[in-house]
Backbone:
């Protein structure tokens, strides 16, 4: 493990700490977490957005097109 953080090739030389693993990372490497957007996390700790937190899908229209009226069978 390196003693110093390698910031070569980064546009900014700001050092930040990942909110989940508490490791030093370059600030440009941290992103908002998908599940908790208030956290700034590295790519290794980033979660995808939980699909159960999304709004429900709209129901499909499965009605029969041009339905016939029911006539008694005689």
Residues:
């Amino acid at each position: 493990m390196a003693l110093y953080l390698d910031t070569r090739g980064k546009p900014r030389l700001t050092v930040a700490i990942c909110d989940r693993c508490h490791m030093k990372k370059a600030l440009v490497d941290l992103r908002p977490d998908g599940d908790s957007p208030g956290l700034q996390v590295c790519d290794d700790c980033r979660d995808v957005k939980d699909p159960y937190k999304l709004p429900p899908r709209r129901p499909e229209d499965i009605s029969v097109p041009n339905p016939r009226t029911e006539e008694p069978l005689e």
Notes: Residues 15-49 form one domain. The radius of gyration is 26 Å.
